[in-house]
Amino acid sequence: MNTKTIGVLTSGGDAPGMNACIRAVTRAAIYEGWKVMGIYRGYEGLISGDIKELTTESVSNTIQRGGTVLKTARSDEFRTPEGRAKAYENIKKLGIDALIVIGGNGSFAGAQALASEHDITVIGLPGTIDNDLYGTDSTIGYDTALNTIVECVDKIRDTATSHNRIFFVEVMGRDAGFLAQNSAIAAGAEAAIIPEDNTDIDQLATFIGRGIRKSKNSSIVLVSEKDGGAMHYAERVRKEYPQYDVRVSILGHLQRGGTPTAHDRILASRLGVASIDALKEGQRNIMVGIKNDEIVYVPISRSIKMDKPIDKELINVLTILSI
Amino acid sequence: MNTKTIGVLTSGGDAPGMNACIRAVTRAAIYEGWKVMGIYRGYEGLISGDIKELTTESVSNTIQRGGTVLKTARSDEFRTPEGRAKAYENIKKLGIDALIVIGGNGSFAGAQALASEHDITVIGLPGTIDNDLYGTDSTIGYDTALNTIVECVDKIRDTATSHNRIFFVEVMGRDAGFLAQNSAIAAGAEAAIIPEDNTDIDQLATFIGRGIRKSKNSSIVLVSEKDGGAMHYAERVRKEYPQYDVRVSILGHLQRGGTPTAHDRILASRLGVASIDALKEGQRNIMVGIKNDEIVYVPISRSIKMDKPIDKELINVLTILSI
Amino acid sequence: MNTKTIGVLTSGGDAPGMNACIRAVTRAAIYEGWKVMGIYRGYEGLISGDIKELTTESVSNTIQRGGTVLKTARSDEFRTPEGRAKAYENIKKLGIDALIVIGGNGSFAGAQALASEHDITVIGLPGTIDNDLYGTDSTIGYDTALNTIVECVDKIRDTATSHNRIFFVEVMGRDAGFLAQNSAIAAGAEAAIIPEDNTDIDQLATFIGRGIRKSKNSSIVLVSEKDGGAMHYAERVRKEYPQYDVRVSILGHLQRGGTPTAHDRILASRLGVASIDALKEGQRNIMVGIKNDEIVYVPISRSIKMDKPIDKELINVLTILSI
Amino acid sequence: MNTKTIGVLTSGGDAPGMNACIRAVTRAAIYEGWKVMGIYRGYEGLISGDIKELTTESVSNTIQRGGTVLKTARSDEFRTPEGRAKAYENIKKLGIDALIVIGGNGSFAGAQALASEHDITVIGLPGTIDNDLYGTDSTIGYDTALNTIVECVDKIRDTATSHNRIFFVEVMGRDAGFLAQNSAIAAGAEAAIIPEDNTDIDQLATFIGRGIRKSKNSSIVLVSEKDGGAMHYAERVRKEYPQYDVRVSILGHLQRGGTPTAHDRILASRLGVASIDALKEGQRNIMVGIKNDEIVYVPISRSIKMDKPIDKELINVLTILSI
Predict the structure, then answer these.
(1) What's a single GO MF annotation on this record (chains A, B, C, D) (predicted)?
(2) Chains that touch C (3 or more CB pairs under 8 A)
(3) Which residues, 6+ apart, have CB-to-CB distance to A258 below 8 Å?
(4) How many angstroms away from the CA of C14 is the closest CA of chain D?
(5) DSSP β-bridge partners for residue C51
(6) Which of B30, B282, C204, D48 is most buried, by the most CB atoms less than 10 A from its CB?
(7) pTM of the prediction?
């Protein structure tokens, strides 16, 4: 294998740990004697040519920073063959042999489209707070977002002392309930309402049923954003169970930010180094993930199409512990 | 003065540092050889008799905890003379010589009404995150809430990388802009919209005017909750300046919780000790506050009626630094 | 199986998440209709009879707290057959059918001795910040301690701006380098010196050799406590490489405390629930651990005797990223 | 007044909030139409000419960062007239009309020496975690260091559950006990041993005397670094009171780092803006400080020579609350 120049970009929603990953990709490539081009603002910058060389120093002191120093964006133009052709022009012009894309589902779909139309190797690295990528136990940013949510719910619980008060706390994860389910367990919440569950009417009724019998001072329910989210359930409770005092808290964008946790920095570092290893081995068009604490390669097409289920054990744990 | 038994309660919205204050009141009274009765759930517990003696040990290991171990509530019944008469019955029955009330405006108004109708000494201690009490430079909980907001805005800024995006972040302070104005300075935000300012239409227009000329990637505006708050301004921008991408984040109840900062713990400790000193001196119906880093006594009636203005210097500082 | 009454204790060094685990054990047992006896101060309390029944409410609002509400101690008396016989007297007297021990190596050895001499079922749950227990990928408290260390090193790095300055930061882990190795990666440190490595003289020389060639402003080396720890290496540098300005920071006991991370709370909750499941299944004298994100049972004798190696990949990752 | 170009530097020990102050100085000067030169590594850079122009953008996204982007150093050469003459050469060459020095005592002494020998206006801004500067209620970095210490002691307390164990926690402040005294109150510690007190032998004996009578499980004593610090007292207790189990924790360099608190960011912003106001007014050779929440000017000579006493009230508060 004789890769000489790689490009790296972050794409889609930003996630804590992306900088740690850019740093690892950059240094591992330089360690091999390769050249690294940093592409700014995701596929937008690949099309417009907003690209600068990265050095060991240019990624110094970034491992602890949230967001992404390469910025990120969603690019409509890149969704068209014409846009991707323009991007490929820049790739050729700069002599980029392989493209490393840090992002989620949509970003990988873009990478795959590019690789199928043009002669370029792509490697995907899972960076999204939602943890909804098949082929990896954990995505970069998920652990940090989980901790951010739990810290917020800890604070909300401090103030939740009045009787019969129900808080619905809305968290990210439109299509995946990992954040809601796990933060509910970690925060000692009473229930989680997640998109994987299609029986939410019963869930609320069951939860209320359990709640009424309890001597608890307050209840906290984590809700994944979707179809009205927390507000929807608050409205239902106000109508159907007017005896309760209901409050809503929508955590919003702060879930994306913050200094990454140790877990996310280590994961990002390992995946970044592994992406260069994969290129050395001649791998093409894969996602590098982590399974059972070991580096794995997954065809990028498979990482996009497959669903990652929530462990039933976790649902059981929450039910038992919220008595 | 020969006070022997005091009662202590927290009332109104909870604030971080209330536990540190309860601890200080309790220990300083016990240090004098007095007895301390903890009244649960504010004036509600005073009426219903939900009262237990506090010891040195019962306040151990509470200085660092958010919320209030005595719980808090808003009591409609206490707003009536009949309710206050019931409360006084319990005060007499338990031999309480003085009542220490940790809370804000509304709580002090209740204390004053009680003291004007019955033979009981009341001492108010300023506990509210809003910092809107006359006669004290700082209220218990304000510094913690300010830091909580700033940490949240730091996280939001991490994700605020796209061009022309304006975030409106809504914080507490319906009648006072201390939290919004100071967190805007501390978070490096571009503007603050506060209730003290009656020219908010111009404020938004001015801010946008400045914003358009700038090469900034993103703007963050702190907004006090009031008249629709952040959502109102977001709607206006969407209509009047459709070229911007607008996001809203309502921080909500998490602002009330969390481990108190060093500042709030020290303030709460000093005020708690000073309340017992005031009783030793025979003071009646005052609020104990802090001015220029010294303990002061303010007639409780005055603390309620007077407004506390925002320093113009701070408005100027924000304007200059957001260039 | 007809377990009716269980005892639970924490033993050895405390670890964040122990409370979350006590809570889970308690609630999962009560969920089954069982009775739970909380044993205070580890085996000491089992011998002295410092034991109280735990209820659903008595573990409320503890999931987020560091330390252990059951306290912990190291018991010399329990190391003798006589001590264990006394402990068994209390077990019989209280009708305890099974004992759940949350702790590390030494605590498990005690549990095994007890079970081999008397008719009592023991279940071990891995609670130690060192992560050095065979049969589980992760121990309760390890993730929190790792994050605490990384936050400290982030702060130290803020001040480490002068040229040629080397910081040796000593962390816990007398026999296991998990904390040092992983925190070095996560904190972006230049090297880790760990007990698993028997070539430390070369390590320091190699590190210095690399350091001299680099244009770095400062270097941070994580050192596991052992044989003089950080101080030993600082002395060596002062003697052998006097051109460097060396500083030492020993993180010490603060590594054991703090609010547990989401990961530790979830792990503790899952293991606690699983320990009751194991008893329902009639398991005896096992440790309940987590492997590849699934609950596993390991003979308690095996968990004590086997070593858990450090992944070589992590050593490689650190070497590459510290260029 | 027609200042056109200012220089800004940080000097001495770094302190959180220095970046917020550099940002404020830079933007307030640019707001006036002035030019700002950033001098790197304190007086070292002034002598060697390590100086670059600062723009509005170059201080973007720095308000929340610990350390100092201008770096800091202690310069032996600047302590000589020859060194200061070299520095003045650079000042003239770059057309710098005024020098803003962010630092502590030693840094201000250097500034004064420069101003007394050469025709240059200097303005000092108080930046030190020790809070030991006369003429200002608070120094930039003090509030953050205080909170860092309190967070550490909170963690240490989590693990301090065994009987008769005394922790001596050593904090910074060789000549001033502000950090030790205030963190002791805020952390709920049992005592503080500070340099302002010359009766430390009695202090320890008194504390032990109180401790023996108490039913406390553990005691925490904050000790200012000086004359052996915490280790000294631990040794004394081991010899004189062998019945106690003693532990030592030296917090060290991590006290200097970390994201600044809201208080320090606001203070730094206000002082930075005020330094430009002072130059506009034609002020020379002053320190800009804060007294009673208002900006004040103090002759720089006076800020160096005068001592700032510790409030006796605080010593009393700690004594009462540690019962």
Answers:
(1) fructose-6-phosphate binding
(2) A, D
(3) A16, A66, A144, A148, B154, B155, B158
(4) 6
(5) C39
(6) C204
(7) 0.95
